[in-house]
Write a structure and sequence with these properties.
By secondary structure, this protein is mainly beta. The strands form 5 sheets. Strands 1-2-3-4 form a 4-stranded antiparallel beta sheet, with no helix packed on it. Strands 5-6-7-8 form a 4-stranded antiparallel beta sheet, with no helix packed on it. Strands 9-10-11-12 form a 4-stranded antiparallel beta sheet, with no helix packed on it. A hairpin with a 2-residue loop joins β2 and β3. α2 packs antiparallel against α3. The longest helix has 13 residues.
Length: 226
């Protein structure tokens, strides 16, 4: 009985029937209530927010707001209340990944584009549209001047954020991460380190199939997920 009530409460909450979910939770025996009960209870009480269709999320630099990819839109949410500050339409297909630098949000989409937004005002800045396949991943350089994007056909592009100009087109990889002067890319059994300014290939590392990369904050260690 407990498990079925929890499952039904979760479904009702997903359908925005918060009152119905809360009523079911209240019927659960106190001696049986475990983490899943407390999780759903917090949701129903407004302690957490669930956005329908979400597929990616990124926090703003101070943690007081976050961007959520929900279907083909990006929503800017207040981190304390979960209320939407802005809804950013424009993509024609699913948003796959988000990156944030200060108040600029970059969104990568299945519609082959990257869009830049001002999270403070909700205003669009520009669209970057040189990819020929869905864009899977985006990453800002530490100073926010460059943006790297990786697409489904193993193409990585480096963009000038201020102008929208594509500076470099690097082939063979579909995930990216930055450290101050270098760009790491991965897939096809190899991780490559590039000079982000010149596009020069600095080093190749045999690493198996890689889907995500991340530098340690000091830039001395690169981690890959495969």
């Amino acid at each position: 009985m407990y498990a079925s009530r929890i499952a039904l409460a979760d479904r009702l909450y997903s359908e925005n029937n918060v009152a119905g979910a809360g009523q079911l939770l209240s019927l659960c025996d106190e001696g049986q209530r475990m983490w899943e009960w407390h999780y759903l209870a917090r949701l129903c009480a407004g302690g957490e927010t669930r956005v329908a269709g979400q597929c990616c999320v990124a926090y703003g630099p101070k943690g007081d707001w976050l961007a959520v990819g929900a279907g083909n839109e990006v929503k800017i949410l207040d981190a304390a209340t979960g209320h939407a500050r802005h809804t950013l339409p424009g993509h024609r297909n699913r948003v796959n990944h988000l990156a944030i630098h200060e108040t600029i949000v970059a969104s990568a989409s299945d519609d082959y584009t990257i869009r830049l937004w001002d999270a403070k005002t909700g205003a669009p800045i520009r669209a970057l549209a040189r990819h020929e396949e869905p864009v899977l991943h985006v990453a800002f350089s530490a100073d926010g001047k460059l943006l790297a994007s990786a697409s489904n056909n193993d193409s990585v592009k480096i963009w000038d954020v201020a102008t929208g100009t594509m500076n470099h087109d690097l082939e063979g990889h579909s995930c990216v991460c930055f450290r101050p002067a270098c760009l790491g890319t991965g897939q096809q059994g190899v991780v490559k380190i590039w000079d982000a300014g010149t596009g020069q290939d600095l080093r190749s590392i045999d690493a198996g199939w890689i889907t995500r990369l991340a530098y340690r904050p000091d830039g001395q260690i690169l981690a890959g997920l495969g």
